[in-house]
Amino acid sequence: MTGVLVIEDDDRIRLALLLALEDEGYQVRGAGTAEEGLRMQRREPADNVLVDLMLPGLDGFECIRRLRRDDDVPIVVVSARDDTHDIVAALEAGADDYLVKPVAIKELSARLRALRRRARAAPDPVPVLTFGSLEISPDAGEVRRAGRPVPVTRTEFRLLCELAEHAGRVLSRQQLLQRVWGYDTGDERLVDVHVGRLRQKIEDDPGNPRHLVTLRGLGYKLTR
Amino acid sequence: MTGVLVIEDDDRIRLALLLALEDEGYQVRGAGTAEEGLRMQRREPADNVLVDLMLPGLDGFECIRRLRRDDDVPIVVVSARDDTHDIVAALEAGADDYLVKPVAIKELSARLRALRRRARAAPDPVPVLTFGSLEISPDAGEVRRAGRPVPVTRTEFRLLCELAEHAGRVLSRQQLLQRVWGYDTGDERLVDVHVGRLRQKIEDDPGNPRHLVTLRGLGYKLTR
DNA sequence: CGGTTGTATGACAGTTTCGTGACAAAACCG
DNA sequence: CGGTTTTGTCACGAAACTGTCATACAACCG
């Protein structure tokens, strides 16, 4: 399992990063101050560290230097400041990369991956979307229910991913036909059939679906 | 002396980069096309390569892949496009960093420095990838099953490594053709055949593969 | 309540996708 | 050069998947 430590004092940003990284398949942990982060990294080293520059107490630069002192872990700075001087200083202090907020999680993930390739560190985690006991991993082409793999067909899988990507939002049959099948027009019953088949596989009680819900007259949605 | 190769088709930008890097103390050389750049790098390897994404003929992504194929040189993309999708694709292709034009030369220089520090710090620790009782050492060119060496052909080995590097992720036949064979197009049955042959060698029960599994309609993946 | 509209589902036939053995071309190797 | 291994192509059978349809069921509405 690949671990990431996020050192960031803003609770909301830290939480958002942690949740997003978790979806990307990382095992995450967070720290609100440099001191706490250093302590955590010393006790139980993560495979990657994300650091904010503006931290209370010990600042980001110093934090990077100290991390670097006793570890070769890849360090990525995530800062609001988009200033060449800061970037150079951070890299000079020992950081490996520098991203400016707001960061696109996919980019962050890709950069972490590139960095790990260089550092020959941990393996790639596989992103997982979770809906209660239902787990969907688009990259692994896998669906699990209560931990057990569920065999789904390609069409079902695409449909499920489409719904999962827009979790909680209704998608009309037309939209689904368009996005999953690429049809601009077609029989909407087709969607019903596949939704039905999917329910047989992923719902505990297919007659009373908890995740893959029908919204009469509107379409379907996937809920947690 | 540290050498940098700049592959960029716009003469003015290439020249500007070369001059600026020269001021930074690098020994520089430039190429106007991917083909020329690849040739130069093969003949006389630089310590860093800068690549533009929009090149005439062979595009930047392909250029990166080919550079990566026979070299571990740090690659930095310098592109006008500031798009998450491009960034992810470039990093995925094997780039180490991605900068958006116009670049601050001080930042570029700092990033190159950080990258070289990394590249130098990781002298191959001969990693072994393990999948249950299956062991693959990409560097040693060896495959073992329950400790016993398994003779695999070059093609099979590359296919296996490609799958192993992305353990747990589905790779489509197209992707495999592209990455293992370098084909941009071709008969997808070819992949099937080699997967079949590989299974005969590495699976306990080739009829019921445990590691090299098929995901109908999606492709293949290697699991633990 | 009865009519109307929208949704679920089982069956089925046509199509797609896979795995495999056979074989020839190509590469390799003394 | 002759033998051996590896590689790519092909064709075919088996298995899995897909979309359509008909019917049954449920929800809504006045």
Structure description:
With 224 residues, chain A is α/β, with parallel strands linked by helices. Chain A is 42% helix and 20% strand. The first copy, chain A, has 8 helices and 11 strands. Chain A has helices at residues 11-23, 34-43, 60-69, 84-93, 105-119, 154-165, 173-181, 189-202, and strands at 3-7, 27-31, 48-51, 75-79, 97-100, 129-131, 134-137, 142-145, 148-150, 212-215, 219-222. In chain A, the strands form 3 sheets. The first copy, chain A, has a 5-stranded parallel beta sheet with strand order 2-1-3-4-5, sandwiched between helices. In chain A, strand 10 (212-215) and strand 11 form a beta hairpin. The longest helix of chain A is centred in the middle third of the chain and has 15 residues, at 105-119. The radius of gyration of chain A is 21 Å and the shape is elongated. The mean pLDDT of chain A is 94. The A-B interface holds A 72, 74, 84, 87-88, 91-92, 95-97, 104, 106-107, 110-111, 113-115, 118-120, 123-124, 126, 139-141, 153-155, 157 and B 84, 87-88, 91-92, 95-97, 104, 106-107, 110-111, 113-115, 118-119, 121-122, 124-125, 127, 166-170, 215-219, 221. Chain A binds a DNA duplex (30 and 30 nucleotides) through helix 8.
How many helices of chain A in DSSP terms?
8
Please indicate the percent range of residues of chain A in DSSP E strands (runs of 2 or more). 15-25%
| Global outline of chain A | elongated
Task: Please give the alpha-carbon distance between the first and last residues of chain A.
Answer: 25 Å
Helix content of chain A: 40-55%
Mean pLDDT of chain A: 94
Describe the main β-sheet of chain A briefly.
5 strands, parallel
Order of helices and strands of chain A: EHEHEHEHEHEEEEHHHEE
For this structure, the quaternary state is homodimer
Radius of gyration of chain A: 21 Å
Structural class of chain A: alpha/beta
List unreliable stretches of 5+ residues of chain A: none
Q: Biggest interface in this structure?
A: A-B, 31 and 34 residues
Order of strands across the biggest sheet of chain A? 2-1-3-4-5
Number of strands of chain A: 11
